Amino acid sequence: MDLRKCFFAIIVIVSLALSGCAQKEYVMANPEPSKQSYSKLYEDARDYIASDRFDEAEEILKKIAQDQNEKEARAMMKEINTLKESLHSYTKASELLDSGKFRESFESLMEVSSLDTKRLTLVPEMTVKIRKAVLEKAEGLRTSGNDAEAKELLEDYLMSDPGAESVIAYVGRLNSPQPTMTKPTETDPLPTIAIPLPTEPAVEAPTETILPKEVYVVTLDPGHQLNGSSRLEPIGPDSTVMKPRVSSGTMGIETKIPEHELVLDLSLRVRELLIEKGIEVVMTRTVAEVDLSNIDRAKIANENSSDLFVRIHANGANDTSVSGISAYYPSTNNQWAGQLSSDSRRASNLILEGIVRETGAKDRGARASDSYTGINWSEVPVTIIETGFMTNPDEDLLISTDEYRQKMAIGIAEGIIAFLGL
Ligand SMILES: [Zn+2]
């Protein structure tokens, strides 16, 4: 082949190839017209699904699937089936709850699909409702003298909801002479959907019996101080994340009482009550004018080998209508204090229970948090108790009274004493 022929042949091949590409491009740029018009139908189907109108969505999808044999439509129909079942489980859980079938109700609730994002957000609230209802029923049985029946009811319930700590606690108290109603279950660990529950142990394995200690030590840390300190310190040992050493705290919206003053008074009252019980109390401060960072405070608790480190605070929020008490403890994932999580959570819940019992304050529950320096540096079980919102006019006025403060202190002390098992 001479050079010219060869060149010609190349031209022919290249142009053929190009025309092929061009044709392909044409196809790409013009998808089957049907696909575009169906996208609106898909959108409609999605909208129907979002508002639980599954039948209408299904009708649309069936049509698409028939005309087009569309994979997407079929997948969506499968999803609808899951959602339908999930909605059914949720509704059934609610009905079973109403008819007093608590265990069955909880079991049905656990059938809510992890794909059902809409219902999934309602599961925690429903769990709390069921636990509350079962406790109320048990309390009713107990007060009418049917202790055995109450116990049976609760034990049956725990078979399917083994994480309900408030229920476990109540069963425990049924065996003691004076059980008291376990307050809100909002602080119980909520079950996680899609994780098989049966493999979990029904109740945490009892720890070995330890002989009672001679003297228990509790460190009380009244939050803040006269002047905050904005200098930074690491939020945990070896952490590169820094936070101010100690902030100045909030203030009573009506009373103008600073947080550091309120919480010192509360802590001193708690101290009195604990001392009466023979507990040794260490205070991080007894006056307003100190310079103690959050690390310093945790170190005081550590160095005194405290059985519990209770940090007493009050809350503030922009929304003045917000009120109630809450508590914080390290999560199990906390890289410094994770091993203290379960004890700390127990202490948090017991103290909140005590406060609610004494004051009737709104219980906002105990939450895990790993962003508090004073928690992360603690080597002993630790809790932050938020004793109310000073930015709520009513709560601010209430907590400024001698009577309410004393009730609050009694509640906190009762929780601590219960935690120590005294
Ligand atoms: Zn505070």
Gyration radius, in Å: 31 Å
Portion of residues in beta strands equals: 5-15%
Shape: globular
Q: Mean pLDDT, as a whole number? A: 85
Unreliable spans = 14-31, 194-210
CATH C-level category of the largest domain: Alpha Beta
What attributes does this structure have?
six-stranded mixed sheet, 11% strand, two-stranded antiparallel ribbon, 422 residues, 53% helix, 2 domains, alpha/beta
Q: What does this molecule look like?
A:
By secondary structure, this protein is an alpha/beta fold. The chain has 15 helices and 8 strands. The chain has 2 domains: 182 residues, no CATH class; 204 residues, Zn-dependent exopeptidases (Aminopeptidase). Helix 3 runs antiparallel to helix 4 and helix 10 crosses helix 15. The radius of gyration is 31 Å and the shape is globular. The termini are far apart. It binds zinc ion. Zinc ion binds next to loops. InterPro entries: MurNAc-LAA_cat, N-acetylmuramoyl_amidase_3, TPR-like_helical_dom_sf.
What topology does this entry show?
Layout: H1 3-29, H2 33-50, H3 54-68, H4 71-98, H5 102-109, H6 117-120, H7 123-143, H8 147-160, H9 165-174, E1 217-222, E2 229-234, E3 242-246, H10 259-276, E4 280-283, H11 294-303, E5 308-315, E6 325-329, H12 341-359, E7 363-368, H13 373-376, E8 382-389, H14 393-399, H15 402-420
Parallel strand pairs: 1-4, 1-5, 5-8, 6-7
Antiparallel strand pairs: 2-3, 6-8
Helix pairs in contact: 2-3, 3-4, 4-5, 5-7, 5-8, 7-8, 7-9, 8-9, 10-15, 12-15
Residues 223-224, 249, 259, 313 line the site of zinc ion.
